[in-house]
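PT: before anyone asks, these are the final sequences, not the draft ones from last week. 366 residues across everything. Please model them as a single complex and drop the result in this thread when it's through.
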Amino acid sequence: MVERKIMLLHYYTGIAIIALVSIHIAMRLIMPFSESLEFSNVLNNYKNLPYTISLELLLITVAIHGFNGVRIILLEFKQGKAWESFVKFLTLILILIVVAWGTRTIVLTNLM
Amino acid sequence: MEKEEKVRIKVLRFNPSKERKASYESYELPYIKGFTILDSLLYIKENLDHSLAIRYSCRMAICGSCGMLINGLPRLACYTQLSDVKRKEIVLEPLPNFPIIRDLVSDFEGFFEHHKSLKPYLIRKGEEDIDENKREYIQHIEDLEKYLQFSVCIKCGLCYASCPVASTDELFPGPQALSQAYRYIADNRDNGLEERLKLIDNPHGIWRCHFAGSCSKVCPKGVDPALGIQLLRRYLMSLRKPKKKLAEVYRRAY
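LR: through. Structure below.
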C-alpha cells in the first residue's frame, strides 16, 4: 500500500474516531454517569446491536489509527529497509491481535 | 571620556578531525553600530583569532552561505545586525541537522542531495508549445504567481536546520527540497508531476512533515515552505481529480 493511501486511512479513521467516541460518551450520558457504568447497564449496552456495531468500529478505527501513529514515530526514530519492513509487519500484526481480542470480548458479551 | 560599548560573542568551536568534543570560546569586541554578525566574525578573524572557520560570500543574503544558529535561532550572519540581537552576549553555533566541517561551517552535501533528488528543474515531454520566434517557454503572469515565492529560495539551509523531522529522519527530504518540488510541479511549463510525486509519496517523504511551521518562520527570503508542503499534500489527498494540475489547487486555496 502506498504511503498516500495509508495516510488517507489514518486521517479518515481519525475523523471516524471523533464521531464514534462522541457516541460512546453520549451513551454514558443517557442516565446518571455512575449508573451507566454499573455491570448490568454495561452488559445491556452490548445487547444493543447498533451500539455494539459502533463499538466494533471504534475498536477497528482506534487500532488502525493508533498503531499507524506508532509506525510513523518508529520510522522517524530509525531508518532502513529492514526496519521499515519490520515496523510495517509489526503494525499489521498488532492491529490484527487487538481487533481480534476486542471483537472476541464484544461478541462474547453480546451473547451472554 | 565615554566608555566604549563592548559586545561578547561566544562561538562553538569544533574541529572533528582533531577534537572529540566541541567547546565554546568567547571574544570581546567593540560594539559598532551597523555591524552585522558576519562583520563581527570577520573582525574576530582579522584581529582576535585567525583560526576561526566561517563561510560567507555575498554579504547580502543572496548566496545563503553564512547560515548559523544565532542565540538559538537559525539565521544568516550577514542579514542579522548586532542591534537586532539585543543582547550583551551573542552565542553562535553551527546549523543543527548538518554535519560540522569545522567551527561554524556545516556540510551541505546531504542537503543538496535531497534537493537534487526531487529534480529541481523543468521536465519537458515535448517542445510543441515553444514560441518559435523567441525560443522560450510561454508563461503568463498569473501562472508565474502560482509558484513565484518558492523560486526565491537561496538554499541557505535555515529551514532544514529548524525542521524537527529532519533532525531525526535523515531520509526526509526537508522543507527546502519539498517546497522546490512544489515550485516545479506548480509551474505550468513543467511535465514532471508524476515523476516527482513518486519521489515524495513514500514512508520518508512528504507525509512525515508534522507542520511545525518553523521552516517558514526562519526563512530569510520570506518563502513559506510549509505552505508548499501542505499544498502538495492536499493534491496527493484529492480523490476526485487526481490528474488535476497542482497549480489549480493553489489558486483554489486563495
